[in-house]
Amino acid sequence: MKIIVTGGAGFIGSAVIRHIIKNTDHSVLNIDKLTYAGNLSSLKEVEDSVRYSFVQADICNKPAIQDIFSSFKLQLSNLHLNLILI
Question: Which among 83, 82, 84, 79 has a CA at the least distance from the CA of 20?
Answer without folding.
Answer: 79
